[in-house]
TrEMBL record:
Protein name as catalogued: Phenylalanine--tRNA ligase alpha subunit
Principal location class: cytoplasm
Domain (Aminoacyl-transfer RNA synthetases class-II family profile): residue spans on this chain: 111-320
This enzyme's EC code(s): 6.1.1.20
UniProt binding sites for Mg(2+): E256
Primary gene name: pheS
Subunit record text: Tetramer of two alpha and two beta subunits.
Gene3D superfamilies noted in UniProt: Bira Bifunctional Protein, Domain 2
Keyword list, A-Z: Aminoacyl-tRNA synthetase, ATP-binding, Coiled coil, Cytoplasm, Ligase, Magnesium, Metal-binding, Nucleotide-binding, Protein biosynthesis
Top-rank EC class of the record's enzyme: ligase
Length: 344
């Protein structure tokens, strides 16, 4: 039995040396050290030995097992190291090769204009407010002094989901919700940028989905002169320090009095050109003093508080600012168009 154990040891060591990979080495381990291996079989036959031989054969079997296990461990470490070296050699990176250029994107012109306007008004103490794009009829119309049946809320101009829920047609509902949250206590000073939706035919100057930015200020002793001064700062910051504004009477259900706001043409300086259609002025937004009914519906005392509101379209501003003649350029994802607005 001793000769059998020495023979098993020599066979195992020879197979360990010939093992070319970890799988072959594991097969050797299972063959000689497993529960069904020859060494285990030798140990099971020890019952046939005399009392004197059993300790010697047992010690020898354990010694053979330990020698084989030790050699397997050494071989395994060597094979693992060889595999690591092969992987490193296969995955070597030549750092002298020129790298692939990474094309960095740039903000969309509409996004740039919105951010510029936001930064301008944040610097004037305003806060940015947001609201849901799927809006209720109450906040979209009724809370803004547009009762049911009012011509300005014609269903042909709106995307209704149910009789009481629609895609908001302007960002004014954010103003109504903000006023309501203040529970009749001022001051309120916000701008509301966001997407709006109207059933319109898409052409060079119209889109069924576009963006708006509206502003609202409510406090004691607010006057029309505050509105004009705010809009003058806005026009000079956005279009140039030489710009002038003028206010023309208009009508909006949620403001009284209401005005259309024009800025002096930055192309001809009020002399008249194709950009301003010979008038010297370009319309940029609508504004006015907040209607008392809107304040009262939001819980404000209209005898104590007054306010002004204004609304503009970033697409319109961007078209004027960058000389873009078709609003559809903003939505077609043409990289040739978008790359023109890379920021320094």
């Amino acid at each position: 039995m001793q000769e059998q154990l020495w023979k098993l040891r020599d066979e195992a060591l020879e197979r360990i040396q010939k093992a070319a990979d970890l799988k072959m080495l594991n097969d050797v381990r299972v063959s000689y050290l497993g529960k069904k291996g020859p060494i285990t079989e030798v140990l099971r036959g020890m019952g046939k030995l005399s009392k004197e031989e059993r300790p010697k054969i047992g010690a020898l079997a354990n010694e053979v097992r330990e020698v084989i296990a030790a050699e397997i461990a050494k071989k395994q470490e060597k094979l693992e190291q060889e595999e690591v070296e092969k992987k490193l050699a296969a995955e070597t990176i030549d750092v002298t090769l020129p790298g692939r250029p990474v094309h960095i994107g740039n903000p969309h012109p509409i996004t740039s204009v919105i951010e510029e306007i936001e930064n301008l008004f944040l610097g004037m103490g305003y806060e940015v407010a947001e609201g849901p794009e799927v809006e209720t009829d109450y906040y979209n119309f009724e809370a803004l002094n547009l009762p049911k049946g009012h011509p300005a809320r014609d269903m042909q101009d709106s995307f209704y989901i149910t009789e009481e829920i629609l895609m908001r047609t302007h960002t004014s509902p954010v103003q109504a919700r903000t006023l309501e949250k203040h529970k009749g206590k001022g001051p309120v000073k916000i701008i509301c940028p966001g997407k709006v939706y109207r059933r319109d035919t898409d052409d060079a100057t119209h889109s069924h989905q576009f963006t708006q930015i509206e502003g609202l200020v409510v406090d004691e002793n607010i006057r029309m002169s505050d509105l004009k001064g705010t809009l003058e700062v806005f026009a000079k910051k956005l279009f140039g320090k030489d710009r002038e504004i003028r206010l023309r009477p208009s009508f909006f259900p949620f403001t009284e009095p209401s005005v259309e706001v024009d800025v002096s043409c930055f192309s001809c300086g009020k002399k008249g050109c194709s950009v301003c259609k010979g008038t010297g002025w370009i319309e940029i937004l609508g504004a006015g003093m907040v209607h008392p009914n809107v304040l009262e519906m939001a819980g404000f005392d209209s005898k104590k508080y007054r306010g002004f509101a204004f609304g503009m379209g970033p697409e319109r501003i961007a078209m004027l600012k960058y000389g873009i003649d078709d609003i559809r350029h903003f939505y077609t994802n043409d990289l040739r168009f978008l790359k023109q607005f890379k920021q320094a």
